[in-house]
């Protein structure tokens, strides 16, 4: 008997949602796809936000994605008028999911 689900095989992906972040409130859940690249590398992506990270396990990849969402949001928000057009578009995409304050 297994205590945890088997990791997906290469080529398979798992679709999840992020419904909360450690330091921010979400306006709506963030759709996420996690795919293995071999046995020890997992790619987590939030396609709606055009953000992708890699981790050493499924849970590591998901945690790193959450951290990246918060770090990106905070950095872009603090830069404010110094953002270029692409950074401003990314901030608007993030604001569709992450609440200020």
Summed up, what is this model?
The protein contains 2 helices and 4 strands, in the order ββββαα. By secondary structure, the protein is an alpha+beta fold.
Provide an overview of this structure:
The protein is of the alpha+beta class and 101 residues long. The protein has one domain (14-95). The protein is built from two helices and four strands; from the N terminus they run ββββαα. It has a four-stranded antiparallel beta sheet, covered by helices on one side. Helix 1 packs across helix 2. The N and C termini lie far apart (45 Å). Mean pLDDT is 89; it is low at 1-7.
Strand content: 15-25%
Helix content: 25-40%
| Major sheet description | 4 strands, antiparallel
For the termini, the CA-CA separation is 45 Å
Order of helices and strands: EEEEHH
Number of domains: 1
Please give the order of strands in the largest beta sheet. Answer: 1-2-3-4
Compute the gyration radius: what is it? 15 Å
Instruction: Tally the helices.
Output: 2
What's the count of strands?
Answer: 4
Label the structural class.
Answer: alpha+beta
Low-pLDDT residue spans: 1-7
What is the averaged pLDDT score? Answer: 89
Shape: elongated
What distinguishing features does this structure have?
4 strands, 101 residues
What does the secondary structure layout of this molecule look like, with pairings?
Blueprint: E1 14-18, E2 30-36, E3 42-46, E4 51-55, H1 58-79, H2 85-95
Antiparallel strand pairs: 1-2, 2-3, 3-4
Helix pairs in contact: 1-2
């Amino acid at each position: 008997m297994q205590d945890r689900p088997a990791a997906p095989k290469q080529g398979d992906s798992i679709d999840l949602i992020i419904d909360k972040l450690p330091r921010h409130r979400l306006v709506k859940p963030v759709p996420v796809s996690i795919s293995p690249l071999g046995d020890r590398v997992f790619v987590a992506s939030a396609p709606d936000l055009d953000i992708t990270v890699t981790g050493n396990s499924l849970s590591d990849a998901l945690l790193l994605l959450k951290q990246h969402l918060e770090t990106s949001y905070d950095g872009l928000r603090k830069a404010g008028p110094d953002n270029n057009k692409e950074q401003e578009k990314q901030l608007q995409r993030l604001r569709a999911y992450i609440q200020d304050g």
